């Protein structure tokens, strides 16, 4: 069974950077590429970072019940296509979802075993500095993202792990450790233990 890792963070906390590093070092992870109605940003590539669609296309997919979860975030739709779960299972990989807190709670009701990881910057001023350093958003968008952050942080108790992203290398190590530890949780090891026991005859 694939493990579903749900990673959420207020925008600018460093989640994309950490997820990118995690995927580079762990070939057994598959990234769920979301659908969005927002425009591509910076170095983003269609199909790799997001699948960019119009509002009409997104709403048609909602009507066809194609999303495992979806939400409207900062005026745009974002959603996870159902096919990712099937694809991860077929490839024998664990799935990484980078989704917001609303999507994470929808997901948790459909996949109760999903592992939630909440990432946050050490303070508001760090978050603001990172949003500006990324220099991909207008002042208006940065203002809205900062306003939304406090509300999102209040939802942290729905997650299993909290990662305060101070030093990037340390955070990347911690994230990789969470993934490794989850893979050896006792309830996921029953089959392996039975196999080993069988070798004792
Ligand atoms: P998110 O995906 O959470 O919106 P990004 O990964 O785009 O955030 O990171 C926002 C900015 O902060 C980027 O410029 C990134 O290089 C920078 N950043 C990420 N992690 C750290 C860190 N630990 N310390 C300082 N800057 C960071
Ligand atoms: P951004 O525009 O910065 O890429 O993403 C804005 C927010 O939307 C982030 O919190 C990100 O995690 C979230 N997001 C991205 N994809 C999805 C998705 O498929 N579903 C939901 N619910 N949120 C998503």
Notable characteristics:
binds adenosine-5'-diphosphate, binds guanosine-5'-monophosphate, 201 residues, 4-stranded mixed sheet, alpha/beta, single chain, Rossmann fold, 5-stranded parallel sheet, globular, 8 helices
Number of domains in the coordinates? 1
The shape is globular
User: Which range best describes the helical content: under 10%, 10-25%, 25-40%, 40-55%, 55-70% or over 70%?
Assistant: 40-55%
CATH architecture: 3-Layer(aba) Sandwich
Distance between the termini: 26 Å
Strand content: 15-25%
As a whole number of angstroms, the C-alpha radius of gyration is 18 Å
Total number of helical segments? 8
State the gist of this model:
The protein is of the alpha/beta class.
Description:
By secondary structure, the protein is an alpha/beta fold. It has one domain (4-199): P-loop containing nucleotide triphosphate hydrolases (Rossmann fold). The protein has 8 helices and 9 strands. The protein has a 5-stranded parallel beta sheet with strand order 2-7-1-8-9, sandwiched between helices. A 4-stranded mixed beta sheet has the order 4-3-6-5. The protein is globular. The two termini are 26 Å apart. Bound molecules: adenosine-5'-diphosphate and guanosine-5'-monophosphate. Adenosine-5'-diphosphate is lined by residues 9, 11-17, 130, 133-134, 165, 167-168, 171.
Topology:
Layout: E1 4-8, H1 15-25, E2 29-31, E3 34-36, E4 50-52, H2 55-63, E5 67-73, E6 76-81, H3 83-91, E7 94-98, H4 101-110, E8 115-120, H5 124-134, H6 139-153, E9 161-164, H7 168-183, H8 190-198
Parallel strand pairs: 1-7, 1-8, 2-7, 3-4, 8-9
Antiparallel strand pairs: 3-6, 5-6
Helix pairs in contact: 1-7
The structure holds adenosine-5'-diphosphate and guanosine-5'-monophosphate.
